[in-house]
Amino acid sequence: MLGHPALILGWAKWLPAWITPLWVLSIGLLLGAIAVVVVYGILSVLSLVPPLGQLADKPRRGITASLIVGGVIAVGLCATYIPIAGEYSNTLFLPLICIGLVLGFGVIYGMWHRTRSEWAAMVGEGVIPYLLSTMAVFAVIGLGGTPFVENPRSILDSVAAVNLVGDGTERVVVTVPASPELPVGESPFVPANIDYQLRSVTGLTIESDRTVLLGDSADPAGFGRTPQRVNEGEKLVYSYENRDQPPIPSDPTRLHIQNREIDDATVVFTFNNQPMVPQASSIVVIAFTFFLTITSLIVFRQAAPRVWALALSTAKNEMAQPLYLLLLAIGLFGVLLFGIYPFNTLGDDIRLLKDSGVTLIMVLGMVQAVWSAGTSVSEEIEGRTALTVLSKPVSRRSFILGKYAGIMLSVLVLFVILSAVLTVVISYKPIYDARETASGDTVWQTGHDEIMTTLPVLGLYLMETMAIGAIAVALATRLPLLANFITCFVVYVIGNLTSPLVASARDNNELVGFVGKLIAVVIPNLNIFNVQAAVDTGNQIPAIYLAGAFNYLVCFSIAIWMLAMLLFEDRDLA
């Protein structure tokens, strides 16, 4: 039956639309893994040079060097991206500085001789194997469907055209000299001497203050196409999307311009350079995210070994608990069920799938975070286990940080596994709905766009889970598990109502307004991480919004950490 012609024809119709988005993301993961191998391979070779390989032998010297290198990288990133970020560019400072510092620490500790000798241990310990295994399985599924991918060559060619800086707009001005001594129409065609890649040009506007002709040769006898006329004060517009005929030759060395007037002409070319397959930009995003994640884990392990050891022990202990496996099973079952469940929304099933899926993952992550805080922090303090840990060269500050980091690492693994499954389901959902409603074939771009609008939402919900986890760890230093659960639940509910409370208090009396503002100060504004409207409309979350949410998370986490230290500093552990 598997070889039945009708079944094979059905697979041939929907399989490319399902597998191509997964293939695109898999290529991003593969490029990220190659970048990790290449970069840290080069750093491992540099570690053989004694001054470089021994730079991090002394912690203070290694941290100082990392801050210097990271500061230089951060300055370069800020100087590159802040000027082009627009109105809310200030929100990018902290994320870019953090990225620069992570890369700086990655350079210094990547060159450390101990890092070179501990690669096998790093890859095989803690949460890293789970993360790598999940990504590897996802990549195998995606890359395994390469024979069914629609036009993979054009997607790969488009990766090189992705704009890493700016929006791809380039303005080139060419001055064409006049030949007043010659009759009109006999002026020479002079070379434009500009460079461009026509296959990456999705839009082009040509303006001139004099009437000119655009040809593909200096000699009219060698023209391979009719010259394009650009009249004075008019615009010649080309759009690849409209399948227009390009007004310029594909070979930039063949572009020649004739000035048909007695004054010099100024011709302005405005190129809009974009990859011919816009979805190829997600490959670069996924590759960089993978590289930055692995670098962060390496830096954490090598630069803060005591905190990492405590975090690793906490994460392994929590992931071995029956509750963790139960939450993982519930998440897998729920995500798969949402993929085939008929929501009966007359075309909006994909929206409800995304909404239900990301919400389920966030709720499970929060339950895991609060439960782990109660069992890993509160019960260890009550059971005097924390006293044994602190009797070693581990400070109370490192204890709190290590516990929080370990809990968040276990939550990260939960998010990654469930998000990978949700991505596969979202890629197939448009095809499933189309087959159920007999609405015709779908294109792979639909599934890809749905995935890329979901991943930032998962990132925001992970930030929200980290905020609730920070509160849970801080409260666990004083409260038992049940009280911690109730308090975190109340904070979550009120935190998502903070913005509406403040807005509704503006037109009321002063007392109501004061209470609303007081709640907004004391309770975190979790509504920042709630992008329900964007999920409903299918809009892409802009990077500037993610940066703003990250800024709030960092500031809030620092405040909660200070509160946790106040609560834990004078706690009698004996």
Automatic annotation (TrEMBL):
Keywords: Membrane, Transmembrane, Transmembrane helix
Transmembrane segments: 20-43, 63-86, 92-112, 119-143, 280-300, 323-344, 404-431, 451-475, 482-505, 511-531, 543-568
Cleavable signal peptide: none
Protein name: Membrane bound transporter
Organism the protein comes from: Rhodopirellula maiorica SM1
